[in-house]
Each structure stands twice: as C-alpha cells, then as structure tokens.
Fold each of these.
Amino acid sequence: MAVRTLLTRKTLSSFLRNDPKPIGTAAISAAASTQSRDLHVYTLPDLAYDYGALEPVISGEIMQLHHQKHHQTYVTNYNKALEQLHDTVGKADASATVKLQSAIKFNGGGHINHSIFWKNLAPVREGGGEPPKEALGWAIDDHFGSLEALIQKVNAEGAALQGSGWVWLSLDKDSKRLTVETTANQDPLVTKGPFLVPLLGIDVWEHAYYLQYKNVRPDYLKNIWKVINWKYASEVYEKEAYLVNQEDRP
Ligand SMILES: [Fe+2]
C-alpha cells in the first residue's frame, strides 16, 4: 500500500505541477474520498471582470457560456481522468493508464489554456487594448518590426489554423526569442517545445466567437486586440526573462 501511494503521488505530480491552486475536495465523490484523499482537485478559476465587461468585442453571453460551460467541462473531465489515473496506476494496469493519456492531455490542456486566456483579456476601462510598453514592447519591435506586424502575423496564423486550436505569442526561454505558435485542439503551448512560455493565447475554437461573429473568425481576431491585457503579458515576460538571466549567471 505504501509503495502504491508513493508511485501515485510521483506520477500525479508531473501532471499537477503546472497549477499552483490549492487542493479542494468538491469534485471527489464520497465513495472515492478515502482512496483519493491525496488527489488535488482542480476548480474553475474566477474571472477578474464581469461577463459583459468585454462588450462589444466579446458578448457577455459568449463569455458566460465559455467560462461556465466549456471551461467547467474541461475541469470536470480533467479531475475525472486524474481520479481514473490514480486508480489505474495503483492497479499497475498499464493499458488502462496509457488509454487515459488523451483525456488528460485534452482536458488538462483545456484547463491550462483557458486559465491563461481569461488573464489575457481585460475590459477597455481597465487597460484592455493598451499597447505593451518597455521590455515587452521593445522585444516585440525587435522580433517582429512593430506591434502592428505582430498582430497581422497572429491574425494570419490564427485564421489559417484548420479546425479548432490556439494561436500564441510565446517566449522561447532557450533562444530568448519571441515566437508566434499555433496548437491544435486543446494542446497547451508546452507541447510545441519545453522552453516555450505563453505570453498571450487566443482561443480560435468556434465556441469562442460563433454566437457573435458566426463563421467569420478573422473579424473576431481583428477585434480581440481591443481587449487584450498586455499588462499581464508584460508581467509574464519580465518575470520569465529575469529568470532566464538568473539561470545564465555563473
Ligand atoms: Fe475555449
């Protein structure tokens, strides 16, 4: 039993390390609570603004559905998959454990990506759409020529992405360069490279815009910049760039 607990904790830690949220018990069933008492349960993060605060760029109806229904479903299914993983690892059922990986990637990725997305947005009256300044602003100019050139690149790659997915502005901590990346489905940015840090992620799933923009994804992409929270992206950039510099010191 002690070995099983140790193995389970070790395995789960690799999946849980990206979410510093404290552990709750809300989604654990009473029947499973004894066996799963060490499991962390992910919860839907609150938004820092009202659902209607991003209008007219993104309607309150879209925001509410997107947050309460879509993101909540990823959270619920991620917790469910982790409970199942706890069980299959404990039983040394390799086949069942491997079978869970796609559900963990999809729903865990959905939770990671949306948690970033909400922070990437801000109402206009709270600074949404204000261009990045200082370090990130200078880095964007260096890597893309101008903020406008970056926006055009993100919009082009986001519009060209087939099916559902995400378009990202990322910092490559290894090369120390800013890059534009896309990921399919709910793949988080880290699946494209271990050193990629998401500064800005835009959800291009239809559920993010269809009720308002119908099938015209380019219009959604064109407008979303009016509510992009560059302050958050700048804070992440400065923190991560500082860490890179720290690591480089002898
Ligand atoms: Fe979404």
Amino acid sequence: MTAPDPGSARGKAGALEVEHVALELGGRPILKDASFTVAAGEFIGVLGPNGAGKTTLMRAMLGLLPLSKGAIRVNGAPVVRGNPSIGYMPQTRSGLAGRHVRGRDFVAMAANGHRWGLPLANAAARADVDRVLDLVGARTLAMRPLSELSGGERQRLLLAQCLLGDPKLLLLDEPLISLDPRHQTGVVDLVRSVQRELGITVLFSAHELNPLLNSIDRVLYLGNGSAALGTIDEVITKPVLSQLYGSPIDVMRVNGRIFVMAGDVEVDKLDHAHEDGPEGHSHSHDHDHAQGHGHGHGHGHAHHHTGTHSHDV
Ligand SMILES: Nc1ncnc2c1ncn2[C@@H]1O[C@H](COP(=O)(O)OP(=O)(O)OP(=O)(O)O)[C@@H](O)[C@H]1O
Ligand SMILES: [Mg+2]
C-alpha cells in the first residue's frame, strides 16, 4: 500500500464523521448503528453485499435521506442537501450510451444549471468545465458524442462532472459497474491520481475488492446493518466479515488477490450473479445525473490548474 499517511489528518475534524447512524427505507432498517471517521485525503473503498446499504449511506451523506438516529458531519458541518463540497456519481447511469450529446456539453449541463443567460457565470462555468476535463485528461475526447465513447471514456466524463465546483469529498457509487477488467483498472488509477492531485477525500463503492487493492487507503465494509472501517488487514478477515455477512466467511489470499468466500463460492460472484444485464441492476434509485451533484454554486473560484493526464481508460 502506498497510502499518504492519512493518520496525520486524524485528530482534526474528519472529512466525514458518522456517529451511531441508523437508516431506514420504507420502514426497513438498512443500517442499525454505524460509526466511523474518514480522514481528509483518504481514498476509501466501500464494499458489502447487495442491499447492504452502500448507496443508501451515500444518499444520507448528501442529505437525500433523513437519519433515523445519530449524526453525520461532512468537513465538520452537519449534512445539508445540495452541499457544494460533495461531488456525487450516482449508481444508476442508464441510457448514457445512447445519447448523442457531445461529451463536453454533457459535463457542462451539471455546471450551468439555472445560470444560463448570465454571461459572467457562464464564463466561470466554462472555465470550470475546462478545469475538470483537464483533470481527467478528457478535453479531446469530450468533443465527441457520448454514444461514440467507450464505457471507460464515458466514466471519465462522469468523474469530470463530479469534480465541478471543486468538491472536497467525492462519493462515487459503483464507478466500475459494467466495465471490463482493463477499463476497471484505468478508472481506479484515474480516480486515485485525481484524488492525490487535489488532496480530496473519496468514497468509492464497488462489488469487488481486487480492482481496488493497490489504490485504497482503507476499506469501509457494510453488512448486517453495521459498518467496519479499517485497513484491508483489519477488515478483510474471517471474524469481521463473518459478523458483517451473518454467516461463516473465509478469506483467501492468492497471488496478491483476495477472495472472500462463503463455503466454496466467492461472495461477490454470488451476490452479483444477477447483475449481468445491460444496466446491471435489479433495483434502481431515483437519481438524475443533471441534478444529482449539488453544484451550480459558487463557480466564481479562480482555478489555476493547467496539468493534463493521459490515462488508458
Ligand atoms: N425506496 C426504498 N424502499 C424500501 N427499501 C429500499 C428502497 N430503496 C432501496 N431499498 C432497499 O434498501 C436496501 C439497501 O439498498 P442499497 O441500494 O443502499 O444497497 P447497496 O449496498 O447499494 O446495494 P448494491 O450493491 O446492490 O448497489 C436494499 O435491500 C434495497 O432493496
Ligand atoms: Mg448500491
């Protein structure tokens, strides 16, 4: 692991503090009592079986869902809807592949919002769009329509969209879904490099741990209504995972990869076996990309970023 010493940020207010949080949906308990603190500048992998509450927890951080108990603080402040310091990539991203809108215009949609018609705001929004496209190395590919981009390339533009407005915390919900393994690695590497460059905090949910192994600082594992946050060695263990799954779990390490097994079945294969369809989901949430970001606030910052990346995504 090449973690940048997230420990140095501990002791100060965490980037994300979750204290005895309970969450319910339709009267069903999703989380019962979750407590953890993410330090500023950490890259956290969020794992757990289908339905464990990964998406629900992210929505609670965005103020889209009331807490039934406990408190969440983002950069020391209570959760607020439309918080401009959080960038969000929702899990459901249906239909992007069929859209003929130019990549740049797609990214800009989330920046402009209601500000169309205000020349100064538009200039600032344009500068922000340039900034985020440079950050993900997508200035050139953003000239093409979404329908002509690969899944990995579209993913880069979605990441660019989340970076509008210069958020300090990114919530990325299943950015690897429906990508082939090569593109998965490219997306993880891209997020990691942008996260380091900006010094921001990232929560990155995924079905599978292995694509994240070399990038994440710590892992947040949800299951059985609770949450465990720690290093891979602390969390990806027989006792911790057996508790979170509510059944006996084995952890096998083979050639630098980790397999989480229930009996002789790999749990992520088991859980997500039904997710092979085009959109890959058996349930969906009412996300809308153009409004799911909480941006459109304060695009008047000066951005001095000039670097570009070239990633094989
Ligand atoms: N509107 C709703 N009303 C009631 N239950 C819901 C609602 N939305 C989601 N759920 C349930 O809440 C639980 C948590 O869902 P959530 O989407 O947060 O899980 P997840 O960990 O993100 O799962 P996945 O890996 O499939 O994305 C699931 O059992 C889901 O079926
Ligand atoms: Mg989810």
